[in-house]
């Protein structure tokens, strides 16, 4: 498990017509050992941009990103890849690779340039596929899978990296309700430090220890789901009225969006 600390982060896009335009500004965010932290906000608020900074894809204009007190941007990409695993919304083009080969790519940061998969690597790959319910698909072509099946394979690829920090961008986006719940329950059971963006606020409420709300490139609220997911905040940030009550079985916030009749 790892700790992530983001301090006073700003990120700008190069407009090539003048001064760079800030899209993220003054971001402070922490993920503690074994915490499952959610990032929520409307479309275009900066969720994906912030995650890209957190997994060392987009370099910030200012501020620091510390993983276990080490500055990510002062370490090598290989160092980061050995400690941070990422599952994104979009699916990569894997050019005919089978499922087990896609998962095996997660071992690359731990191998030498000309190393082949060891016995330990193959065991980790088999275990990860079993964990996500994809063992029977190991020799099938990745490109021929459904969206939900691809998402589970990419999670297996992330798990074989043996990361200290897992970063997920809309992890349930392509999954039906059964696999949404199974995936998030499994992730929670792993005890990995996790930062995940969510579109479905009820899933965020059910599975996250803490939430950060991002709007127009800045963090506007943070805390437990009960502290953050209020009708007033949802109206302010998302512009929609909501009824917020307690889940009848588990007690976390339950959101019902109110449509105009």
From TrEMBL:
Keyword Transmembrane included in the entry's annotation: no
Keywords: ATP-binding, Nucleotide-binding
ABC transporter domain sequence ranges: 4-241
GO MF annotation, one: ATP binding
Keyword Nucleotide-binding: yes
Pfam families: ABC_tran (PF00005)
PANTHER family: ABC TRANSPORTER ATP-BINDING PROTEIN, HEMIN IMPORT ATP-BINDING PROTEIN HMUV
Protein name: ABC transporter ATP-binding protein
Lineage, top ranks: Bacteria, Pseudomonadati, Pseudomonadota, Gammaproteobacteria, Pseudomonadales
């Amino acid at each position: 498990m790892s700790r992530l600390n983001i301090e006073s982060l700003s990120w700008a896009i190069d407009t090539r017509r003048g001064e760079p335009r800030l899209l993220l500004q003054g971001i402070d965010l922490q993920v503690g050992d074994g915490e499952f932290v959610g990032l929520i906000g409307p479309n275009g608020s900066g969720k994906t941009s912030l995650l890209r900074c957190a997994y060392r894809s987009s370099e910030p204009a200012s501020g620091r990103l510390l993983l276990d007190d080490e500055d990510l941007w002062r370490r090598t990409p290989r160092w980061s890849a050995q400690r941070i695993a990422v599952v994104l919304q979009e699916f990569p083009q894997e050019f005919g690779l089978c499922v087990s080969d896609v998962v095996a790519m997660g071992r690359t940061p731990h191998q030498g340039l000309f190393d082949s998969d060891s016995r330990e690597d193959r065991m980790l790959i088999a275990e990860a596929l079993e964990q996500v319910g994809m063992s029977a698909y190991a020799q099938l072509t990745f490109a021929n899978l459904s969206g939900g099946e691809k998402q589970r394979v990419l999670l297996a690829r992330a798990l074989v990296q043996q990361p200290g920090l897992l970063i997920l961008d809309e992890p349930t986006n392509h999954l039906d309700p059964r696999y949404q719940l199974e995936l998030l329950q499994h992730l929670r059971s792993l005890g990995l430090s996790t930062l995940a963006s969510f579109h479905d606020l009820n899933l965020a409420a059910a599975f996250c220890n803490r939430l950060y709300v991002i709007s127009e490139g800045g963090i506007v609220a943070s805390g437990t789901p009960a502290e953050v997911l209020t009708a007033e905040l949802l109206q302010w940030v998302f512009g929609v009225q909501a009824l917020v009550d307690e889940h009848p079985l588990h007690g976390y916030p339950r959101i019902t969006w109110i449509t105009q009749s």
